[in-house]
Design a protein that fits this description.
Length: 96
């Protein structure tokens, strides 16, 4: 599998609700462990809202290691106009 593009991501841990979409910054993934959810602007650059429910059985698994985050499985924004597809591993989104 060839990587087309790489984007560094920064986790932002929240207490309570998710931030307003207008306040979200590019390259940051907002994580609420209280609500088992994460949200970010699409990392392709289109900026569309991408919500990931954090649950091993019916969503994504968040893996934390020394301040870096990974998600499994991959993130496919096929319903968005950009149709982006990326894998976040150790704080880097690799587009495929």
């Amino acid at each position: 599998m060839k990587t087309l593009k790489k984007v560094e991501v920064t986790p932002v841990y929240l207490k309570g609700f998710m931030p307003d979409y207008e306040l979200m910054e590019e390259g940051k993934i907002y994580i609420s462990k209280q609500y088992n959810t994460s949200i970010h602007r699409c990392l392709c650059g289109c900026g569309e809202k991408t919500v990931l429910p954090l649950h091993v059985l019916y969503g994504w698994e968040l893996i934390e290691n020394n301040g870096q985050i990974s998600f499994t499985p991959s993130i496919g924004n096929f319903q968005l106009p950009c149709k982006s597809h990326y894998i976040i591993t150790k704080g880097v989104a690799n587009f495929v």
